[in-house]
Amino acid sequence: MSRPDDGRKAKPASTLQHRLQRAPMAGERKGLGKVDFRKRAMLTGTIGLLVWIVIFGMGCLVDSTPYRIVNDPTFRRQILLKADKSGQDSEIPDAQIIRRAKELDSDRNVHLWTRMYSFGLALLTFTPINLGILCFLSGLMGGCSSQATYRRLLHDKKVPDPADGTATQASSSEQPTKTQWSENRLFYMSEQPITAAMRSFVVYLFLLAGIYLAAGDPFKDLNASQYLRMVGFVSSIAFAVGYDPTRFTELLNYIPKPGGAKP
After folding, report:
1. Does any domain span residue 147?
2. What is the Cα–Cα distance from 146 to 240, expressed in whole angstroms?
3. Higher pLDDT, 101 or 158
4. What is the DSSP letter of 94?
5. What is the pLDDT of residues 180-207, one digit of tens each?
6. Contact (CB, 8 A) for 124 and 132
7. Given 136, 146, 223, 243, which is the most exposed site by the fewest CB atoms within 10 A?
8. Does any domain span residue 218?
9. pLDDT tens digit sequence for 37-66
10. Which of 16-20, 88-92, 195-199 has the highest mean pLDDT?
11. How far apart are CA 149 and CA 190, in angstroms?
């Protein structure tokens, strides 16, 4: 055992050697970094699917009205007006919701925790926001699936590896397989899943604007069957855009153009 210059007691050489053996080397990955990229993408996609199911279940089974009336006085007054016109309006709110709206309308001092709790549940259950979250998660799942596919193609050497710097010339038998993957398609398939999720959410915003322009207020008096059709439609588009936007563009090209113009 050697004594250091500052006078402190040195640790045994065996202990130091044991710690050096346990210490991670430079560049060594820790935790989830040790997991293969393809497995990480599939794990993220699976978690996104489970969260999607939970959010979808809340949109189907949980009514957002009891939570919206806490922080939205305008909507609360609309509920009370419907209750006053119960003989004229067939859409009568639930008696418990009416009673709660009257309590909130008379009592201005609502507890902060109640407001925060109601605001959070309203975010998850109110249909426009619920659909936006579902589209974001669908795009995330699409991005994870495309990245896993891209990693598999790299592993099977069916696409050129960008880490090589310059693409090697493929043999005549491999050339048709590699040329079917365009640069744009490979670019979208190799991007991070969060990028695909944000792109899908932006597409949802465009769809939402188009629906409002075409139908006025599509979420007014929305029933369960209409919600299911809307979820299936927007989630499918979000997944396709997240997986590979070029596929979605090809699908749009099959739509007949005015005047019979070719795409």
Report:
1. yes
2. 10
3. 101
4. P
5. 567 777 777 788 889 999 999 999 999 8
6. no
7. 223
8. yes
9. 668 888 999 999 999 999 999 999 998 888
10. 195-199
11. 9
Place of tokens 């979420």: 219
Alpha helices in the chain (DSSP H): 13-22, 37-61, 65-71, 73-84, 95-106, 112-125, 127-155, 175-179, 183-190, 193-215, 224-243, 245-253
Number of Cβ within a 10 Å radius of residue 105: 14
Cβ(240)–Cβ(252) under 8 Å? Answer: no
For residue range 148-181, list pLDDT tens digits in order: 888 887 777 777 766 665 444 444 444 444 445 6
CB hemisphere CA count around 5 (13 angstroms): 0
| ∠ Cα 149 151 154 (to 5°) | 110
Which pTM was predicted? Answer: 0.72
Number of domains in the chain: 1
Read off the pLDDT of residues 108-150 as tens digits, 9 standing for 90 and up: 677 889 889 999 999 999 999 999 999 999 999 999 988 888 8
Asked if the structure places residue 89 within a domain, the reply is: no
In angstroms, rounded to a whole number, what is the distance separating the alpha carbons of residues 129 and 124?
7
- Asked if residues 98 and 83 have their Cβ atoms less than 8 Å apart, the reply is yes
Domain membership of residue 206 as a residue range: 127-158+180-263
Residue 241 lies in a domain: yes
Contact 191, 139 (CB under 8 A): no
